[in-house]
Amino acid sequence: MRRFSIIIPVYNRPDELAELLDCLTRQTYTAFDVVVVEDGSSVRAEDVARGYATSLSLHYYEKPNSGQGFARNYGMERASGDWFIILDSDALVEPDYLAIVNREIDRQQLDLFGGPDRDHPSFTPVQKAISYSMTSLFTTGGIRGKAKNAGGTFHPRSFNMGLSRQVWEKTGGFRITRMGEDIIFSIQALKMGFRSALIPEAFIYHKRRTAFDAFYRQLRFFGRARINITRYFPDTLKLVHFFPAAFTVWLFSFPVQAFVCPLLFRLSVGALLLYCILIFVDSWKQNKSITVASLSIQAVFVQMTGYGTGFLSEGWKYLREPKGTRQTGEQIEYPS
User: Are the C-beta atoms of 7 and 84 separated by less than 8 Å?
Assistant: First the structure.
């Protein structure tokens, strides 16, 4: 039995899968196999998987589309490793990724872990700006892996996470297939007493979206997902989760402020300009690029308003639901 089985759900992304598999051929730690789950794609990755069958211990499966959470379950059901590592197909990893994971899960005696994400030098300016907004301390992205969480409270995200076979057997895997399925899974595992931590050195390069309109749709979905998590675990909704929604309401209140209270409007504009300057300077310091720094302002606005509008729309729906019909753990699919 190999120690690690790497689970990769794929949906219409054969080219990205090829880049990830190429990274896996360069791993310095080699006691692993790869499970690729084609989740009802119309653009299949079978030829890509076949091309790496001689350089990797690779298993390729096809199934009808059921969403990413259940595709991961499908892969874990067929995996042979003691540990399952889940990666998005649009990820890239360094050659020492598995060696770091192997060392840290033993050193810290972990049951599950998560790793952060970074931008790659080859990314476009838009991708780098989006990566900045998703990891910046000036947005809610700052909680996505900048520092270790104490006390075993870190909630791994499915773009870069690992879990032991024991965790899989006890939890049964992902209870829903999207809309916050990874956080729901992590919360459930932690409530069962399993130990989790961030491994900062086990980062991935996450390619994310390449255009702001697609990024907006993705973040709107993330905002809705945060409310969906509340359906299962109401006590997990924190003040920080309201920040994008409050920002969105404040931003769209500017015309009303200008009409009702010009002084308040001027103060709000000043605060917004200061916020933009802080984003620009911080991004420029990180990326050493005026272009990326300028695009980062736009990326942050797209992220905050996308998440905020999704949070508000799903939150309004949640408040109108009769309490008896709110989900408390049943395996149920919420439409996207």
Answer: yes
- Read off the pLDDT of residues 98-136 as tens digits, 9 standing for 90 and up: 999 999 999 999 999 999 998 888 899 999 999 999 989
Q: CA 27 to CA 116: how far, in whole Å?
A: 18
Give the Cα separation of 18 and 196 in Å (integer). Answer: 30
Residue that is written with structure tokens 């909630």 in the block: 155
- Contact call for residues 58 and 36 (beta carbons, < 8 A): yes
Q: Give the closest residue to 65 by CA, choosing from 87, 46, 40, 85.
A: 40
Structure tokens at 14: 């054969």
Q: What is the pLDDT of residues 47-99, one digit of tens each?
A: 999 999 999 999 999 999 999 999 999 999 999 999 999 999 999 999 999 99
Tell me the domains of the chain and their CATH numbers. Answer: 4-121+145-208 (3.90.550.10), 214-325 (no CATH)
Start-to-end Cα distance in the chain: 38
- 266 contact partners, CB below 8 Å, separation of at least 6: none
State pTM to two decimals.
0.88
Contact 114, 196 (CB under 8 A): yes
For residues 92 and 37, what is the distance between their CA atoms, to the nearest angstrom?
Answer: 18
Q: Are strands 91-92 and 160-164 parallel, antiparallel or unpaired?
A: unpaired
The answer to whether the CB of 13 falls within 8 A of the CB of 89 is yes
Q: What is the pLDDT of residues 262-273, one digit of tens each?
A: 999 999 999 999
